[in-house]
Design brief:
By secondary structure, the protein is α/β, with parallel strands linked by helices. Helices cover about 45% and strands about 20% of the residues. It contains eleven helices and eight strands. It has an eight-stranded mixed beta sheet, with helices on both faces. Helix 9 links the parallel strand 7 and strand 8. InterPro entries: AB_hydrolase, AB_hydrolase_1, AB_hydrolase_fold.
Length: about 280
């Protein structure tokens, strides 16, 4: 694996850790969950043959500390972090952006707020439950998860969250399979567990309740690739991508694996991502 160039960027209320590999047009990779920049390790080297590949730990996670640790988290502020990285690494030039899960939500807001800076966005399973016809049911899930987190602690809340994400009638799953990426090293595993309370308590309720500007997104849909996991049809994070693709009359691109296909099928995931970006 090629060692990336590491950097630190001061933004409003936080300091971002970012990593850069390769040469060529900028490709900003926005991680979801608690994965951080390391979640793209399995695809970044191959993509760096054609792109300047940049990823980062979102504010409040891992190596990107908040100035105020209890600060509320907003999609718009996370998207502004992405914009600041674009300005730093590709000033004045449109860039490519790909995001997974909560990172895909950030990517969608980045597209609608700074379309002049975005050439294409790939959004893999953004869990935008507010766009769904049965949104009230899923808002109730988010409230239950927060109640459980406050009353019973992290792991019961993670189990409640995992149960709400799986498709109806599916067998129960280990909550950790939903809320973290499989660690490649002990240090990464420790970071993931350390970040899970922050993710579940402050990222999940804010991000999953977010509703993008649907009309503005429709006007920019020619720059948007909506994606889902081939193995996650019917699961909650898959459904908003499918709903938006149908609404905008665009193709829903199926990536290998499920919601964490980036981690479970990195070679195939990276190959398809390259193909989609080159289209």
């Amino acid at each position: 694996m090629t060692e990336p160039t590491l950097g630190r960027l001061r933004v409003d209320g936080a300091t971002l850790h970012y990593e850069v590999r390769g040469r060529g047009p900028l490709l900003l990779l926005i991680p979801g969950g608690t994965g951080g920049a390391a979640s793209f390790d399995g695809v970044a080297d191959d993509l760096a043959a054609d792109y300047t590949v940049a990823s980062y730990d979102p504010r409040g996670l891992s190596r990107s500390p908040l100035d105020a640790p209890e600060a509320a988290q907003r999609v718009a502020q996370h998207a502004d972090d992405g914009f600041r990285l674009l300005e730093l690494l590709s000033p004045g030039k449109p860039a490519l952006v790909a995001g997974c899960s909560s990172g895909a939500i950030v990517a969608l807001h980045l597209l609608t707020s700074h379309p002049e800076r975005i050439e294409r966005v790939v959004a893999h399973e953004p869990p935008l439950v507010g766009v769904l016809p049965d949104a009230a049911e899923h808002h109730a899930l988010l409230a239950r998860v927060q109640d459980t987190l406050r009353r019973d602690g992290l792991m019961p809340a993670a189990a409640e969250f995992a149960a709400g994400l799986r498709r109806p009638g599916a067998d129960p799953v280990d909550a950790r399979a939903v809320t973290e990426l499989p660690p490649q090293a002990a240090a990464r595993a420790e970071r993931t567990m350390a970040d899970m309370s922050y993710f579940l308590g402050r990222i999940v309720p804010s991000f999953m309740a977010y509703v993008p500007d649907m009309d503005r997104l429709a006007a920019l849909s020619d720059r948007l690739v909506l994606a889902g996991g081939a193995d996650s049809r019917g699961e909650l994070p898959y459904r908003p991508a499918a709903f938006l693709a149908e609404r905008y009359g665009t193709e829903l691109v199926h990536f290998p694996g499920g919601h964490t296909g980036l981690s479970t099928h990195p070679a195939e995931f990276g190959e398809l991502l390259r193909k989609v970006l080159d289209t």
